[in-house]
Structures are given as C-alpha cells and as structure tokens.
Design a protein that fits this description.
mainly alpha; two-stranded antiparallel sheet
Length: 289
Amino acid sequence: MNHQLKLRAALLSVLLLLLLLGIWQLATMPRASAPTAVSAKDAEYAALMGQAPSAAGEAPAKVDGFPTPAQFLHIAARHLSDPFYDHGPNDKGIGIQLAHSLLRVALGYLLAMLVAIPLGFAIGMSPLLYRAIDPFIQVLKPISPLAWMPIALYTIKDSSVSGIFVIFICSVWPMLINTAFGVAGVRRDWLNVARTLEVSPLRKAFLVILPAAAPTIITGMRISMGIAWLVIVAAEMLIGGNGVGYFLWNEWNNLSLSNVIFAVLVIGVVGMLLDILFAALQKKVTYAE
C-alpha cells in the first residue's frame, strides 16, 4: 500500500511538472506583432536595458528576456558542463559560487550548534535559568537576520565574516528553543529511574536526556538549516564578492534573466537536498514507543 502511494505521488509530480513546462512554453512562445514606431527616447532606454531595435521603425526586441524551456535547458547545461571555471572576480562557475555559500553556511551553522545545544540543555534542565533567559530570547528572536548586517559590518569590518555571523544569529534560535523544549519534555519517569540508580549528571545527560530529546533537537537543527540557506542568499547580495547570492545579483545587474532563473532553481535544489539530509537524520533518531 505504501509503495503504491509513493508510485502514485511520483506520477502526479511528473504530471504537474509537465503541466508547468507546458504553461512555461506557451507563455514564452514568440508572438508576431505589427511594427510600431519607436521614438529616440524609447530606443535609448531600450539600449540601456540590454535591448535593441531589431530594425528601424520596429519595437525593441529583448536580447535576453524570459527564456523558453528549451533555451533554459541549454543555459543550464552550459553552466553544469563546467561548474568550476574561474575567469576572474566576476566570472566564476556555479560550483565555485555554491562552495563559498555552503562554506559560510557550514561555519555559521556549526557555531550556532556549539552555542545553542549546550545552552538549550541548561535552559531545559533549569526552570530558573529558563525564566531568566526567556525575555532575551523573545526580544532577539524576531529580529531579521539582515538587520544585524550593518552592525556586523561595522564591528567585524570583514564582509565574509559578517555573512557567517548573520548565519549564526539566524540559526541559533530554532536550535536553542527546540533543544530546551525537548530536554524539558523528557518523561519524569526516566529521570526518576536515573536518580534512583544514582546516575551522574553527565551520564544522565548523554544516556537518558539526549536520546529522548534527540528528535526535537534534530527538528530545530532542520529548521535552522532551512533558515540559514534562505538568509545566506540575501546576505551575499549585500556583501558581494562571491557566493550563489552574489552570482544571482550579478546576473540581474547584467540583465541576464535566464541566468537568474538558473540560480534560483539551483538555490531551491540545494535547499531541498539539505532538508532531505536532515529529514533522514531525524528519521534515524526517532523511535516508536
């Protein structure tokens, strides 16, 4: 039954994909239009926007507008055929750009783990500490990560490290809250048994609390990774230099909509793969009572 459900879901996904491709093809099909006169002002604007009149007295034709599916596949194949080329600061392959983004996310995320999980354990095991720290969490949690960017740039004075700080500050809260919630929700019976057996606090944390709270902790880590990948793209648009967010913004400045769409899909696919990875990890630590 479960196998049949997966097969039907996959078939429905393929049909939806074909429907979207059909709509895309119809929306981007070239349409014949009657020639219209173009003023000098409109022609100058078209030239600035990367467009040019196809002939005297005709409307400007887009050089790189919204691509058809076939054109997009050709552009995607060109990028993926050589993803690690390096032709200078503003001309690097998508593989190099992704590597920079993933490195920033990994560093910021690791720092968030080192802070959030131990602190979450302490908060979850101490109601007093929870009440003392909760007001700070509630004030800092809703602040947009990008709002920290000016402060980071001023204090750190390094754009790349500032991007890592933004990842840290946006990743720490879901992990911290979920860790505290999972630790506080461990069944009292298990803690009472550990107390009866005179288990040391360290062993109790690793052998009783951590296995019981692991599914909730992984859920917080999964949410944090999704937010981190979401934020790094916006952060790289601001800090520039390299990364998939910078690649996207640079292609927009070059008026290359095809490359922008390619970057958006790459961001989505990588985000999906990261989520699948954490979903598999969550499944490993989840047990049925």
